[in-house]
Structures are given as structure tokens and as C-alpha cells.
Amino acid sequence: MKINCDLVVVIQDSNKEITNEYLLTQIAEYKKENEYLRQELAQLKRFIFGAKSERFISNEPPLPPNTLFTQVNEEEQPLENLTERITHTREKAVHKRGGRKELPDHLRREVIVLEPEGKTDDMKCIGKNVTEELEYIPGVIYVNRYERPKYKDPKSEKIIIAPMPSRVVDKCIAGPDFMAYAIIGKYLDHNPYYRFLQQLKKNASSGYPSIDFWRLGQSICQCIGAHFWCSSKRSSIR
Predict the structure, then answer these.
(1) How far apart are CA 171 and CA 107, in angstroms?
(2) Phi, psi at 143, each rounded to 5°
(3) Which among 43, 85, 105, 159 is least surrounded, fewest beta carbons within 10 Å?
């Protein structure tokens, strides 16, 4: 069988043209898909890594519908700016005024009533100020309780109260005898303060209040130093 060579050449050329057209069409589709995927990847990176103010600002052309970032849920509706007011009631804790602890109740009290000067028969007693100080006699610890009634003159509306007697250390919880006992134990008997407190807890009460020994010792030492300074000055003058 004789085959026409020209016909074979024509068929081969037409097949090449068909193949080239098909390949060009595939290349165009791949380029289009590649560009689409690049845009989606750039948008995804902008959503994940971009600044908050830049996430929804895009200079790229809009993507085709029904893509990853252009699908719209018809059931999803924009939320309104809802505000809710919440009120509650809170109980405020009541803080007690700070101060020293009261002296133990079981200690014996020596009540000393200090009446103001002048006549108070026609006056009305409106209360009293109470000051307690710890005292000591050998073997016994007790409390001096100073009671100072307050009187109000009905005519002048003036309140009268007796003054407190002078004290060795102002506003100190210890009386002069107790202070002397503590200072002698510290400087003559070499009894440290912590051991002195242990003795008080053993003899007086397990819940014994704290004593400001730093202020007590400082005041006593200042008085002793001033006394010796004055004595030495007098002796040097003589």
C-alpha cells in the first residue's frame, strides 16, 4: 500500500498545531490559577501577620466570588452595639482604730479618781477619761487606773476635767515603779528584755501586751545621761 508523503506531513503539522494550542490553553489556565492562589496567600498572610489596622485594607483587586475570603454567610448578621449596665452592692469592711492592747483584766486595779478643781455639784457628768498604767511592787504586778470624770457646766457649756499627773515618759504604758524595775533588771542584773518579757508572761498572763522598751530605755538613758552631764559640769566648775 502506497502512502502519500504529503498527506502524512500535513497530518503531523495539524497535530502539532492542536497540541500547541492545547498546551497554550493549559499554560494560561495555570497562570490564572497561580495568580489566584498568590492573591489568596497574600490575603491570608495579611490576616495573620499584618497589623490590626491593616488587616482589612487591601490594594489588591477583588477576588472571584465563592473563594476562601469572599464567602458570605447569609445567616450571619452584623451585631448591634449593645450596652449592659451592671450594678452591685459591696459591704465595706470596718477597720478598727489601731492602738495598744488593753491590759489583762485579771490584774488588780488601783482606781484613782481625779476630780477637777472647783465645785461640780451643779454640773452634769457626761463621761470620764480612763488611763491605765502598769505598776510593780516586789512580787506583785498591778494596774493604776486613773478615772477623770468630765463635767459640763449647763450655763457656759464648758467642759471641765482634771489634768493627768506628771509622768516619767509621756503616753507610756508603764508606771515609774515598773520602769525602775525593768531598768534595774536590765543594767544592774543584766537581764535582757526578751527574758524580762518571758518572766512577765509567766507571772502575769500568757496574752501579755507588748511594751515599747525601745522608747522606754531611750527616755531613761537620756534622763540618766543628762543627770550625769549636769553632775560632771558642776564638779568641773568647783
Answers:
(1) 20
(2) -125, 130
(3) 85
Sketch the domain layout of the chain as residue ranges.
10-54, 104-165, 168-238
Give the amino acid at 115. Answer: E
Write the CB contacts of 36 (distance below 8 Å, at least 6 apart in sequence).
63, 64, 67
Contact 203, 181 (CB under 8 A): no
Buried b (16+ CB within 10 A) or exposed e, 10-29: eeeeeeeeeeeeeeeeeeee
Per-residue pLDDT 10s for the chain (238 aa) are 444 555 555 566 667 777 788 888 888 999 999 999 999 988 888 888 876 665 555 566 565 665 555 554 545 555 566 677 787 777 776 666 656 677 788 888 889 888 888 888 888 888 888 888 888 777 777 888 999 999 998 888 889 999 988 887 777 777 888 888 887 888 888 888 778 777 777 765 544 555 555 555 555 556 655 655 666 666 665 5
Residues 6+ apart with CB under 8 A from 218: none
SS3 111: strand
CA distance 22 to 17: 9
> 178, 136 in Cβ contact below 8 A?
yes
Report the C-alpha gap between 107 and 113 in whole angstroms. 18
